[in-house]
Amino acid sequence: DAKTTQPPSMDCAEGRAANLPCNHSTISGNEYVYWYRQIHSQGPQYIIHGLKNNETNEMASLIITEDRKSSTLILPHATLRDTAVYYCIVRENSGYSTLTFGKGTMLLVSP
Amino acid sequence: DTEVTQTPKHLVMGMTNKKSLKCEQHMGHRAMYWYKQKAKKPPELMFVYSYEKLSINESVPSRFSPECPNSSLLNLHLHALQPEDSALYLCASSLEGVAFFGQGTRLTVV
């Protein structure tokens, strides 16, 4: 079962920041928070992951609360191409642990 | 090269047919996965291979038969499928937690 809770949908205006929340209150100490997104009819795409520190890459920023029970994915300047389903996943940082998808958040970026 | 290649992109098969889905990666990843995704649902894990050995089978019916002939290839053999097996089948590979997905095979069973 997925260990995360996300809002089913969110809207964002093009050019504005999109802040996608995720609750993972049962996360264990060796589990990381991963974010993926899936644009319609394509395979999921890795965005970012972190353990407890905030992380940033060319796609997004990940803010993890101090108690690690929730996190926020930030797309700083959303574009129409960011319209997708965003999945927050917790898993061990092992190449062989399973990746279990929850229902995700459908982000709609509008002009 | 961070690409996972799946073939074919689309497949239509009858319920008595035998077909295979193929997945290939050249990133040196030793974990490979098959997922099934129905419309408007998240991907569901089917199988996990670790070092070419099946490590996880999520109670998938025997009409789906995975095979990992070498560290770069993953096959999914299909036989006697039902119309409800129509879905997007996704392959992934991973190293140190980050998984890369292929674009999937859209399967229709008629």
Report on this structure.
The complex is a heterodimer of chains A (111) and B (110). Chain A is mainly β and 111 residues long. Chain A contains no helices and 9 strands. In chain A, the strands form 2 sheets. Chain A has a 5-stranded mixed beta sheet with strand order 1-9-8-3-4, with no helix packed on it. In chain A, strands 2-7-6-5 form a 4-stranded antiparallel beta sheet, with no helix packed on it. In chain A, a hairpin with a 5-residue loop joins strand 6 (61-64) and strand 7 (70-75). Chain B has 110 residues and is mainly beta. Helix content of chain B is 0%, strand content 61%. Chain B has no helices and 11 strands. Chain B has strands spanning 4-7, 10-13, 18-25, 31-37, 44-50, 53-57, 64-70, 73-79, 87-95, 98-101, 105-109. In chain B, strand 9 (87-95) and strand 10 (98-101) form a beta hairpin. The chains are: A mainly beta (111), B mainly beta (110). The A-B interface holds A 2, 32, 34, 41-46, 49, 85, 87, 91-104 and B 4, 29-31, 33, 42-45, 48, 50, 55-56, 88, 90, 92, 94-104, 106.
Q: Tell me which oligomeric state these chains represent.
A: heterodimer
- Please give the share of residues in helix of chain B: under 10%
Count helical runs of chain A.
0
Q: Low-confidence segments of chain A, ≥5 residues, pLDDT <50?
A: none
Instruction: Tell the overall outline of chain A.
Output: globular
Rg of chain B (C-alpha, Å): 13 Å
Mean pLDDT of chain A: 93
What integer is the average pLDDT of chain B? 94
**How large, in whole angstroms, is the Cα Rg of chain A?**
13 Å
Largest sheet of chain B: 7 strands, mixed
- The share of residues in extended strands of chain A comes to over 45%
List the helices and strands and how they pair.
The complex is a heterodimer of chains A (111) and B (110).
Chain A: E1 9-13, E2 18-23, E3 31-38, E4 45-50, E5 55-56, E6 61-64, E7 70-75, E8 84-92, E9 105-110
Parallel strand pairs in A: 1-9
Antiparallel strand pairs in A: 2-7, 3-4, 3-8, 5-6, 6-7, 8-9
Chain B: E1 4-7, E2 10-13, E3 18-25, E4 31-37, E5 44-50, E6 53-57, E7 64-70, E8 73-79, E9 87-95, E10 98-101, E11 105-109
Parallel strand pairs in B: 2-11
Antiparallel strand pairs in B: 1-3, 3-8, 4-5, 4-9, 5-6, 7-8, 9-10, 9-11
